[in-house]
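Re: [ENG-882] Designed sequences occasionally contain unexpected residues at chain ends

Forwarding the minimal case from QA. Structure tokens:
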């Protein structure tokens, strides 16, 4: 997330103008968005989501205790624990492990936190080859693109583009046949996996009671990336932890349902440390890097703590009307969609990512689909409040004072009925030159121009609802002439 000023608007426009992206996003939301809502409605255990939310929030309250227990249990089994306060700390530690083991090639499992801290460029600057092994991540790595979905990173590409990419990068004949493309990737990746010196992954969940981490996948790459190389480094956001195995079981079930509508993913890897005499499979060294990088600030603020309950299933992307049009690149962060619009500003600067929370609609669909019922709309509104009025706690300055005063004035007007009605009458008169033949306003001026950049605006009605009501039900009102065709 070392991005410069938000490129949200430009990327959003590009996404809107791409028929290919629009088709992909439509298919994604039609299948996974609708599917998840049906799944929650028909699930036998209707209390599971509430239970998991409760346990996620409870664990956040005792985070220090369960992280200490996790560290103790991992260490007891021969693993190494490192608490990284910043992204740079996590990079430094990983580089140190790589240097000590003379690592030349790293194979990765899909990990958003590795992108958040920026580990790939740091490894590459040391002359270390970094290879993504998740198929979608491998495709975007070959293409030189950032991922555009938490679970489906190459959703912005179709099979023809992937066929052309593989022909160019892997030297195979062009094909757009998915099994043939998968086989080509498999062959290329198998060679990398067999000769890698280090595996680098994220962590879906850690369990403090047992001292293991778990990773879910449908491709089998995680098993190979974590057990074949002699060293495994796992990067973990400090909130990705449960206290007990029972909580782990339910949380993983919700994660895979939310992510891919599966009761359980094809592989769930439980990783508890390096190999030993009793358990000879696995790496010789295991390192768990537990990363803060701004999460403590979120934890300390009751207004936003809830966002740390997120299990990164990606379901909120699959229903969001904004993500569903603009795609993931506009968010300029490994975390896109509604969750990205909340967590990216909190981790990387509210002013820097101001467009993200302002771009969402607050329709509430993300909360409805979220397996742990996180109230993202409430937090989006809270972020907008920080931008409107500034916040010392979040080191946020007022984003746009003209806008803030305009809406304060608007708030005043709409609570004064008689003033509002008078202004409606004045507005109706002055809007006349702007209303075109199709009875719509095509272009607004000044700070209001954004409203009509992408769509026409209906003018103020010749007879508003309030006026019709008054006319129909008020005893004192005198009958008005009917609305003429021209007025309509
Ligand atoms: S906010 Fe909810 S739906 Fe979105 S990624 Fe997190 S857990 Fe999944």
């Amino acid at each position: 997330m070392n991005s410069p000023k938000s490129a949200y608007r430009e990327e959003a426009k590009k996404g809107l103008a791409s028929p290919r992206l629009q088709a992909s996003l439509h298919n994604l939301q039609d299948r996974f968005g609708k599917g998840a809502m049906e799944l929650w409605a028909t699930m036998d255990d209707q209390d599971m989501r509430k239970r998991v939310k409760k346990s996620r929030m409870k664990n956040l309250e005792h985070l220090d205790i369960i992280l200490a227990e996790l560290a103790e249990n991992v260490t007891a089994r021969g693993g190494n624990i490192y608490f990284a306060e910043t992204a740079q700390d996590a990079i430094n530690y990983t580089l140190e492990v790589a240097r000590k083991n003379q690592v030349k090639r790293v194979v990765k499992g899909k990990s958003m936190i590795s992108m958040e801290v920026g580990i790939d460029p740091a490894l590459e600057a040391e002359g270390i080859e970094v290879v993504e092994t998740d198929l979608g991540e491998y495709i975007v790595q070959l293409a030189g693109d950032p991922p555009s979905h938490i679970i489906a990173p190459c959703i912005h590409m179709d099979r023809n583009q992937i066929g052309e990419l593989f022909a160019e990068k892997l030297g195979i004949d062009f094909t757009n046949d998915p099994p043939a493309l998968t086989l080509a990737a498999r062959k290329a990746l198998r060679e990398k996996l067999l000769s890698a010196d280090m595996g680098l992954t994220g962590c879906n969940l850690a369990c403090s009671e047992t001292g293991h981490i778990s990773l879910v996948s449908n491709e089998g790459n995680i098993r190979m990336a974590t057990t074949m190389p002699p060293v495994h480094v796992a990067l973990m956001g400090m909130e990705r932890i449960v206290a007990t195995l029972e909580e782990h079981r339910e949380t993983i079930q919700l994660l895979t349902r939310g992510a891919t509508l599966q009761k359980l993913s094809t592989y769930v890897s439980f990783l508890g440390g390096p190999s030993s005499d009793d358990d000879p499979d696995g790496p010789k060294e295991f390192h768990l890097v537990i990363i803060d990088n701004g999460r403590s600030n979120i934890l300390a603020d009751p207004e936003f703590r809830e966002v740390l309950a997120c299990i990164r299933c990606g379901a909120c992307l699959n229903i969001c009307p904004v993500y569903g049009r603009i795609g993931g690149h506009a968010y300029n962060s490994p975390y896109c969609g509604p969750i990205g619009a909340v967590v990216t500003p909190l981790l990387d600067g509210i002013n820097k990512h101001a467009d993200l929370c302002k771009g969402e609609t607050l329709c509430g669909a993300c909360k409805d689909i979220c397996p742990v019922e996180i109230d993202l709309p409430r937090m989006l509104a809270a972020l907008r409040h920080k931008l409107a009025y500034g916040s010392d706690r979040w080191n946020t300055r007022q984003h746009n004072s003209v806008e803030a005063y305009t809406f304060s004035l608007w708030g005043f007007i709409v609570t004064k009925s008689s003033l509002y009605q008078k202004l409606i009458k004045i507005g109706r008169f002055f809007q006349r030159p702007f209303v075109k033949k199709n009875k719509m306003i095509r272009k607004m001026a000044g700070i209001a121009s954004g409203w009509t950049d992408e769509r026409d605006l209906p003018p103020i009605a010749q007879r508003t609802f309030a006026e019709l009501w008054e006319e129909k039900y008020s005893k004192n009102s005198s009958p008005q002439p009917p609305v003429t065709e021209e007025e309509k």
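QA comment: On inspection the terminal residues look reasonable. The longest strand covers residues 231-237. Proposing we downgrade this to a documentation issue.
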